[in-house]
Amino acid sequence: MVVILSSRVFSSPSLLSVGTFIKHFPTLKPPYSYLKFNHTPARKSIFTPSAAVDNSHFQTLSSHQKDQIRLYINSLLEWNQKMNLTAVKEEDEVMERHVEDSLAIVNPIRDSYLSNCGNSFENLSVVDVGSGAGLPGLVLAIACPSWKMTLLESMSKRCVFLEHVIDLVGLQNVQVVRDRAENLGQKLDFRESFDVAVARAVAEMRVLAEYCLPLIRVGGLFVAAKGHDPQEEVSRAERAIALMGASLLQTCYVESHSKHGQRTAILCLKNGSTPRKYPRGPGTPSKLPL
Questions:
Q1: Which domains does the chain have, with CATH numbers?
Q2: How far apart are CA 200 and CA 135, in angstroms?
Q3: Sequential DSSP letters for 67-112
Q4: By its UniProt entry, which InterPro entries does this protein fall under (predicted)?
C-alpha cells in the first residue's frame, strides 16, 4: 500500500498525517526520531559563506531567497543526523557541492527553453525526478518562484523531510509526489504534462531517459546534471532517447566552481510522443536499460 504523507503528497489510497504515519505502521522499525523535527524549531543559522567557496549563483538571489536557502541547508544537516540524506556534513560544502551545483543549471535551462521550447521562462511546470533531499528541485523552486515544481520521490522518509522543508521555508509552488517514475509516467494526470524534467545523481542517461521523457510534453525539455565527462554515457543513451521520442539537444558545461570537478548539463528536446509501452514496469529500466 502507498501512503499519502500530507495534503501535498499525491499517491493512493490512504491519506495520513505525519503523526499518524507511525501509528498506522507499528511494524516499521526505528530510527524514526527524525519525525520529531517537525515539532522542534530549526536550529539558528550559523552559515556564513567562506571566502574559499565561490558562491556566484547564490549571490544573485534576493535576500529572502538567501534566507530560504539557509533554512534549507540547516534542516538538511539536522535531519541528516537521523537519516541518510547526503554524505556532506559541513555547511560550506553543502553550499558548494549541492546548492551552487543545482543553481548552475538554471541558465542552461533558460537558454535552451527559450531557444527551442517557448517564448517565456516564467510559469514552467517542472518535475524533479528522484528528488531525494530536494536536489535540485527545492533549490530551483526557491530560485525560480514562478515555476510549479513537482518533487518525485519514492521513499516515504524523504517525502517527510521534503514536506518539512516546504513548510519551514514557506514555499507555495511545490508539491511532493510519493511514487516511482515508472508508475507516474503511465498515469494520465502526469504523463507528458511537464514543460521540463530535471534529474541529478539518479541513474545513467539511458535509464534516466526512460524515467523522465515520458513525463515531458511534446516540445518540452529534459535536463540531466552530470559530471565532467559524460560523453560515453550520452552515446550509450542515444537509442533510448530516440525511443522516447526525443533528441539530444546539447551537452554544455555549467558555471559550477566545485572542487569536485567540472559539471555538465545534458539537454534533450522532446520531439514527439513517447510510445505507450514506455516507461516499462518498476525496476525494469535499471535492470534492462534500452
A1: 62-287 (3.40.50.150)
A2: 7
A3: HHHHHHHHHHHHHHTTS-S-S--SHHHHIIIIIHHHHTTHHHHHHH
A4: rRNA_ssu_MeTfrase_G, SAM-dependent_MTases_sf
Query: Given CA atoms 263, 266, 10, 181 in this order, what sign does their dihedral have?
Result: negative
Cα 187 to Cα 90, 179, 215, distances in angstroms: 39, 11, 9
Q: What is the pLDDT of residues 208-240, one digit of tens each?
A: 999 999 999 999 999 999 987 788 999 999 999
Q: What is the pLDDT of residues 193-210, one digit of tens each?
A: 999 999 998 999 999 999
Cell 550559523 -> residue: 46
CA angle 62, 67, 69 (to 5 degrees): 95
Helical packing angle, 156-169 and 63-80, nearest 10°? 150
Residue 129 has phi, psi (to 5 degrees) of -85, 125
Q: For residue 4, what is the enclosing H or E element? A: strand 2-4
Question: For residues 239 and 218, what is the distance between their CA atoms, to the nearest angstrom?
Answer: 18
Question: C-alpha dihedral over 142, 143, 149, 155, to 10 degrees?
Answer: -60
Q: In 10 A of CB 223, how many CB atoms?
A: 23
Euclidean distance between CA atoms 187 and 2, whole angstroms: 15
For residue 220, the surrounding DSSP H or E stretch is strand 216-226
pTM of structure: 0.81
